[in-house]
Amino acid sequence: MPNATQTKAKNTKNDEFYTQFRDIEKEVNAYLEYNPNLFNNKTIFLPCDDPEWSNFTKFFAQNFVNFGLKKIISTSYAVDSKKYKVPYQPTLFETEASQFDKKKTRINGKIFILERETKGKGKIDINNIKWQYLEGDGDFRSEEIIKLRNEADLIITNPPFSLFREFMSWLIESKILFLVIGSMNAIIYKEIFPLIKENKIWLGNKTSSQQMFLEAPKEYTKQVMKSKPEGMWWRIIDGKPLIGIHTALWFTNIDHGRRHQSIPLMTMSDNIKFSKHKEIRGKQYLKYDNYDAIEVPFTDAIPSDYDGVMGVPISFLDKYSPEQFEILGATQRGCHDEVPDLRKYDDYWEVKQSGKETGSSGGKTNENPNLFGNDGKKNYFINKKGRIVQSVYQRIFIKHIRKNK
Questions:
Q1: Residues 10 and 21 occupy one common structural domain
Q2: Range of the domain at 158
Q3: Bridge partners, 330 (sequence order)
């Protein structure tokens, strides 16, 4: 489920969450360690950005020479096109420029360009950026921005939360390298998961266990801090209140070293004897009632010697190596042809632990991973014969890749 921060953002249609400089630096360095020439003589496009507030353009401008970049292109949305309305005051960066226009500053987006000069060897950084107004409002779906996209070698940004699906489709059709921030929940989007399964995109270097704190507009921050919705947390960094989003991850098609590190695993018998998880230790691995696969609720409990299909949490992708595992599909996504569901529950109905029926039919749990029996903790499904099953969380189906001996 989305955390409270992202739900709040969607409800208010606020997409202006700014990534910290240190988080960009840490992530990008992981790709440079794997390929030091990644950015050499390349054009980077940073759409949906706002260099006056955002750190993406600042980071790459500061490292322009070190990375050997050819060009940086950054575009921002027009103020009146942004979905979350806050009082707007143009910055001195804009008002002191000769091209400043009171009307255009609200209805037109901006384009910022930093490129290598053909002559001269002076320092190149954020102070050398040139900008002008776009013809349109800066929407990434416009022909104006698509043309800029097609000029680039890499696209790197934090796209609007509410438009993530559309933005990813826009990225994929470009067929260029990208690195963008999204929610862990996006892993199982019908537009995203098939691409992960086919190893066309994957998660970045940051794992879901690592916190990411993002800066929001001051007006939004004031409103949310006043209401203090459950599930949100804050941290003051460099004097700024930042919103914690623990499900924020990087999605990419750029290779990095951690992606090729195999997970150290124990055998099934050793897991049963020594696992730190009480759900595993001293018990047998359970098989799903409706899939020919075993339930593995923790990534570190994947048995090294099991050759069949295993259902693992979506957080498994944090540690997924394409040399170690094959992804076969996912529950609830209609993309598990290699692991077909073996049973439907249309003749079942949902019951609370109190014995009271919820009013929902068993069709609700079709294509969920289900286990036979009742754990005594959560709702279950039962049919006229008294047969009981319970759903577990969404799972990804995997198998070990065995090298030919």
A1: yes
A2: 4-260
A3: 396
